[in-house]
Amino acid sequence: MSTHQVHVFISHSWNYSGHYNTLAGWIFERTWRFGQAAVDFRNYSVPRSDPILNASNDRQLKEAIHRQISRSHVIVIPTGMYTHYSKWIGKEVEAAGFYGKPILAVDLRGASRKASIVGSAASKSCAWNSISVLNGIWDLYYR
Known about the structure:
By secondary structure, this protein is α/β, with parallel strands linked by helices. Helices cover 40% and strands 22% of the residues. α2 crosses α3. The longest helix has 13 residues. It is globular. 31% of the residues are buried.
């Protein structure tokens, strides 16, 4: 039996922290297995304790996001409408592309429109439930 340590970056806006909290709970608060593989998911998101809000310019913000994403295996982005307006999410998508990191787009319940930046950059999309999200992350990591 092998154990895989998978680094996951969850994109979020602290104004919509409920989405982040739900995803983080599904991913990081349980032990997961896929077949014979035990999986240790590690949180490489921007921590609430250091939310990069003190970045004094766009370059510092970009560098901080790139640092987190460069060390991640999979980037998870909820497809809520706030992603249309978030400079942060644009920088996260850009960093994922730069480092060749796959993006899992998670369709929020009741969302009638997906953010085009996320939809066009996503390697895979999944439904808003724990099993779909975890299977999506594992699929993108394991390919």
